[in-house]
Fold Adenine deaminase.
Amino acid sequence: MAGSVISDRIAQGSGRKVADTVIRNVRLFDLVTGELLPTDIAICGDTIVGTLDHYEGANVIEGHGRIAVPGFIDTHLHVESSLITPFEFDRCVLPHGVTTAICDPHEMANVLGRPALDYFTQAAMRTVMDLRVNLSSCVPSTALETSGATLGAADLLPYRDHPKVIGLAEFMNIPGVLNGDPVCMEKLEAFAGGHIDGHAPLLRGRRLNGYLSAGITTDHEATTAEEALEKVRKGMMVLIREGSVCKDLRALAPLLNPVTSPFFAFCTDDRNPLEIAHEGHLDYLIRLAISLGVEPLAAYRSASLSAANAFGLRDRGMIAPGRRADIVLLDDLRECRVSDVISAGRLVNDALFAARDIIPPVGTDSISLPAPVHAKDMQVTGSGAQRPVIGLLPGQIITPFLHADLPVAGGIVQPDPAQDIARICVVARHGHNDNIGRGFVKGFGLSGGALASSVGHDSHNICVVGMDDADMAIAVNHLEKTGGGFVVVRDGRVVADMPLPVAGLMSDAPFEAVRDRLEVLRAAARALGCQLDEPFLQLAFLPLPVIPHLKITDFGMVDVNRMELV
């Protein structure tokens, strides 16, 4: 069979047989020189077999002089953070030219463990796009939180040779790597010689050298040009991130040019359907990069060929004979205006999505509170001494460690709207304990009410922020009823919500419904005074331990620089 397939490719590419499909009359954007080259593109099955020539095909797609570029590769993302299932993610982003996506089911794995890996590897076999999986390396991500599951090396090894698995996902336990933690060492040794993703915010100097010596090769957490330049000079592939919350492209764009583009790729990490509808997906990153002065050759090369090479996907990344037929047709190169997408030789349309064998979601009963919470559970007792406060930085998940004098009434430390300081709590939701971490945060702009989310990186306990303790309690209890999600509460009533019943992380609705509901939620948050572009995703990142800043977990406020409660 294999010989027959190869023989057909040879015959069609050499012109002895009519090609299965021909994309006629396009201008191929050459990733070697940056030229636009008039050509047909011949395809046999799922493989390109002819370029820079004229071909006849049994099936013809008229190019009408449009520009052909290789399919885009998102090098690091969490499908769960799009708030939709892998099948809706497929339907949402493939029309934007994303023909390959490399996902880490880290969020769902921290809730469910191995069933999350089973779900994602099975779903990846059925999507129209090529969805690849990196196995979640840090479940739990830290001992400072209560997660829903634990995955050791023995749990990951059975998936290592799965056809959709690339390697080990972002290794965020930097102290564990540098200090030789046995659990970390076991995972690193089990996947040695394969691909291991990094997660190294602010890591520089000798500590970076030690981290890289573990065989880690990529990083999506660089937030400054200086940090990114050191990392690529030390052999790392830097994945330039532009998501719904973390926006690093403007800071890193000055580094990206045709000379450096082999060392940079693009990723979204976390991007929701509302932002995709308003701006796009990887097409938006390419468009933004070019608007910031990046040469189109560098932008498109990083979005395809450089990304493919970094992850060992040698069968794609160029429009060239022998490569996978992932092709994007553009009406405009600088604007990255996508008009048609070909995925593995198939023109993307509704019929392709309708033909998929969709599997049912898992984890639809993942919210387990021991008992309803009450207003008093949200309160911090104490005197009027200075309090540690989490600060927010727009467009980043790094948080300043602040202090503030807060008012006290009846022995209860109060939020202070005048200083834009609200209460924040993390409520354990996996049924293992009844922990509630309490603290304060600056930057939400709330005048009253509460916002809550069952998306809370990385252990995904319930995060709630508010000016009113009773509203905060109502918000938490409401999420248990809906199986998780987002909610806005004011004056004792729910004014907007969006259930996320799949592991408390994803909707089972079409992406269009999620997009529209996010608009309603954003408007409800603005009515409380919140002007953040993504208030729920910003809230979701506040429990994420990013050295060396202050975070809140279900154990309480933590100075993760010193690894202690404050």
